[in-house]
Sequence to fold (290 residues):
Amino acid sequence: MPMLLIKGSYHLIGGRPDGDTVQFTPDKKEEWELVPGPHKVEHNTSGKGRLRLDAIDTLETHYSRNGNPEVHQPWLHGRAARDELTNWLGFTSVERTEDETVTAATPTTRPGWILTRGAGRDKRCIALVGTGTPPGTSGTQIHVDEALLRTTFNHHILDMGLAYPTYYKKLFPDLRDELTAAVRRAQAENKGLWKDDATLDGATVTGIDSLQDDVVILPKLFRRLVDYLYLGDPHAPDLTGFPDFLDQEADEFWIISTGHPTTGLDEVVEVIDSKVRMTHPAEDLVFVEK
Fold:
């Protein structure tokens, strides 16, 4: 799979990095212009922009939409993923405020490289992230195979069981299969979040507090539930309208096991009273980029 290689450095100070988001500055900021696709990477005058790590989704440590209050998923696995990322990148100490903003880090930056095929609508660069010697010349397209994928943090965090796989159409099937193999190993060993995951078994949702404190579920499902709950009383929700809400959100995806293209997560989400569950695992879904 061809991807654009960009060499640069990772930054934490002033940001709110979690397990799948971090700041990055290319050594040559003009290389941001080489990122393909309809969306430009947003960056400041020094070239610092934000990365959204490809193919993974870690538990939310701060989520808000449409002016609603900021919420989080249960802290244990979200903060473990956050710390795993900063440690893996080579930061030896990190100081944060209560809202997760980094005020100090040692060292202040760390060198590394990214592999990308585009940016999202939010102007974050969607990337595989690496450290050490870059696997090619910065600013050029290189071939990414399973061996190179295994050197990235994206693969590592799935292998640790601290992230859910979240696939999009641009990721080639051979790389997707390699990541799914890492997920299956983590599940078999009951690593990380998998010992608490309720995505398929069903999560009892009694209000916003239960989502924040009690249930470990796929972050995409968490975000949809939060958005829905804030349309009414978030502390005494009526979930009967949640499937219709998912239909209106109109996420487009394929179900790999059936080869079936689908619109609306209501096709793979079941609601029975206060219990919400997905009928297909995350690794069986491939979403269409918007």
Notes: The longest strand covers residues 109-119. The chain has two domains: 2-192, 197-287.
